[in-house]
Amino acid sequence: MCDDDIHQGLVHDPRLSRRAFGLAAAGGLTLASASVHAAAAVTDTAVTIKTPDGEADAVLFHPAAKGKWPAVLIWTDVMGLRPVFEDMGRRLAAEGYVVLVPNPYYRVRKSPVVEGTFNFATPADREKLTPLRASITPEGTLRDAAAFLAFLDAQAVTDTKRKAGVQGYCMGGPLAFRTAAAVPDRIGAVASFHGGGLATDQPSSPHLLIPQTKAEYLIEIAANDDAKDPGAKARLKTAFAAAARPATVEVFEGADHGWTVRTSQVYNEAAAEKAWANLLALYKRAL
Question: What is the CATH number of the domain that holds 217?
Fold first, then answer.
């Protein structure tokens, strides 16, 4: 998980209200996007996925044209499934992928789990996340990952002959690692953006799963995450080398935790676009 003290300031999306989100999702409608990269000719559908632990709400995206495309699973940051992550899913689908963005907190609450403006500087706001975070466990993530990939592979538009990708943001970084270990024969690429706790001294540390995976990795580290734990990147590089897994591990100087998420106060467009280009290059190579 990501530490509260690494997050900075406000997270605000004027589209984020439970009623508006629910009405749009119920009809499978495209939410209005503030992004200049809003994708044309993409189909998006609200879906429910049965897992061993319940029913997960999610959104599925794919190109509207006829064809089959490789699958990608997106794990959100600590604030869960919301319009800004739908924007990412839609944008990626426009590049030629079948993309699933699930609500990681489905065991506790349907999305969106946080409404309106959220301020990490306010203890009352941070406390809203406590019961949500507690619902995510390493074991549960392995079950979820298998269910989500099975759902993607069951779609007529998914090219199951090609490897799948998984990407995670903030707390989603560790979940992406666990996904690669849960379905190693399916995942060909893993990307983490300002992921928290990727290489710790705990027996459940995500980096210990690297030998169980068969993917290529892209690890994009925020400057303030690196400042807090400068040894993490070396531990990751050592683990990748020992497992003979191809990996890029780099620190984005001047870009702080959350820099890739448009609604974050620390959003850095230039750095976010560079990270996005790196992601597309990874998927082009590995999927």
Answer: 3.40.50.1820
